[in-house]
Amino acid sequence: MSRRGARALGAVVGLLAVCGVAAAHGGSLRDASGQELAVPTWLFLSTGGAVVGASFLLASFVTDRELVAAIDEWRRRLPAPRRALAWAGRAVGVAGFAVVLLAGFARPDIDPLRNAAIVVVWVGWWAAFVMSTYLVGNSWPAVNPFRTLTRPLSWLLGGRDTSLSPGRAAWASTAFLLALVWVEVVSPLADEPRLLAATTVGYLALCVVGVAALGRDRWFADVDPLSRLFSMYGAVAPVQRTDDGLALRLPAMRLTDDVVTTNGGVAFVVALVWGTTYDGLVGTPAWASFARAVVDAGVPAAVLYPAALLVGFLAFHRLYWWAARSARAVAPTYTDAGVLARRFAPSLLAIGAGYHLAHYLVYALSLSPSLFGALLAPLDPPVARTLVLPSWLSAVGVAAVLLGHLLAIWVAHATAYDELPGRLQAIRSQYALTLVMVFYTMTSLWIIGQPAAEPPFL
Amino acid sequence: MTDSDIPEDAPRCSHCGEPFPTERLRALHRGLEHPDSLDDAERAAFEDAYRGEGDDIRSFRLRALAALVALYFGFLMTYAVVAV
Fold it and tell me: Nearest chain B Cα to A57, which residue?
């Protein structure tokens, strides 16, 4: 049994941690697929689901309110030169932006594994920097080159006060995020440096329009999808920004606070989780045959991809709200289902961060020589080399997925204790949410267990 | 989602007016949220509710433990049979 178990675990380790080439896509499960399983798929999936269910049962044994609150509220002040750090962040962000434009437009002939534009965006930013936002702290407000570069615009326009409500802003942000996922899936952004650089300029143009319409603070605080994405991931991190400087907290415990304050914010978290899943889903053979059948039936592929993105998002969104409403009925409580939905949504972010780490840790480390080479000589990078990594490192990937789920279960447990007066009532409010998490784990594991296929018609 | 399904006669907190499905949840809420403004009867009700909840939690723990054991041995057997 133990050997079997070890092999099953080994299969998961291998599956999750297989590093992609530089053509990896954002937040994707797709490149992690493609190995044989030692156990039948249904058993593999139900084991994954059972781990999540069992961790819920284990968490339910902790019913001491004071202990739960002490773990959530533990914090230490962290003295740091915030001004100097902010300036350093801005310099790094603008320098990275310049390298992407330079290498993308001046040297698009260099192959993607060496090209500074591709490597800085996918390895440096989307893998390594995103990891830093949930492992250390969210430095994007300082680093964000779009924010730094639109600064003169806000001086020109002066202070703006718009009447856009936070809820609508969050919905707009969700729509932008889904659009980004769609662009990322259907376009060869990881292979064509010139296109990548042009997209970066396009994003700057979008930010200029946004800042002009809504004001700089409003745009970057509420609507800009990248800023919101990083602030969501940043809530998982131990280093948090507070009114009086930086503070150190236990990882993911900020998720028990009011991280999501509007129903639009709930939609954004669901879109973040669904975006990761969708990116993996379109890389499965099942999707390929489904897409061929649908296109044969006369639906254009250009409609199919965005339609599937939207339908899947709506399905995930409905499922999550179903969980919130059943939590209200099963607990039972007269607390509004909207309040429960907003309070429990952040727990999903720990799962998202776990999957991101599992997918990108080996990828980022193995391509780091490429990144350093490209940074030292953006116009004439050295021959691409990959780092040979010790095999135990891939186990970190599986540990990350498990830890993400365990943290999510704990965060939901602690949030319920904070929100509801009854201890048993708090546990009962978690039934539906745990079911949703089990379903999501099994979906993700199914995608990971599928052999890799190129999405058709792209 | 709305307040419409909250019955008129639902127990409400005497300090903040929040409605609760049961008397026990109201008593627990008062003890946790308004500990400094309880009168003696409310304090006694809170302590009773807290103790009563403790009994229910013990029985829940037994069932949770049974579920964990069933899950563990269920998977042990399944792996022994299927994944040979």
Answer: B64
pLDDT beyond 80 at A22: no
pTM: 0.89
Radius of gyration (C-alpha) of chain B in whole angstroms: 21
Q: What percent of chain A has pLDDT over 70?
A: 91
Q: Which residues of A touch B61 (CB under 8 A)?
A: 60-61
**Closest listed residue to residue A120, CA positions, set A200, A236, A237:** A200
Range of the domain at B54: 3-82
Q: Which of A169, A170, A203 is nearest to A184 (CA)?
A: A203
Q: Does B57 sit within 8 Å of A8, measured CB to CB?
A: no
Instruction: Give domain limits for chain A.
Output: 2-449
CB distance B32–A60 less than 8 Å? no
Instruction: Give percent of chain A with pLDDT exceeding 90.
Output: 63
Neighbours of B25 (CB within 10 A): 25
Of all residues in chain A, the one with the smallest CA distance to B6 is A334
Interface test with B, best of A43, A55, A57, A333 (most B CBs within 10 A): A57
Distance from the Cα of A233 to chain B's closest Cα (Å) equals 28
Which residue from B21, B57, B76 is facing A1, i.e. has the nearest CB? B76
CB-CB contact of A248 with A75 (8 Å): yes
Q: What is the ipTM, given to two decimal places?
A: 0.91
Count of structural domains within chain B: 1
Q: How far, in Å, CA of B37 to CA of B41, rounded?
A: 12
Q: What per-residue string of b and e applies to A306-331 under the rule 16 or more CB within 10 Å gives b?
A: eebbeebbeebbebbbebbbbbbeeb
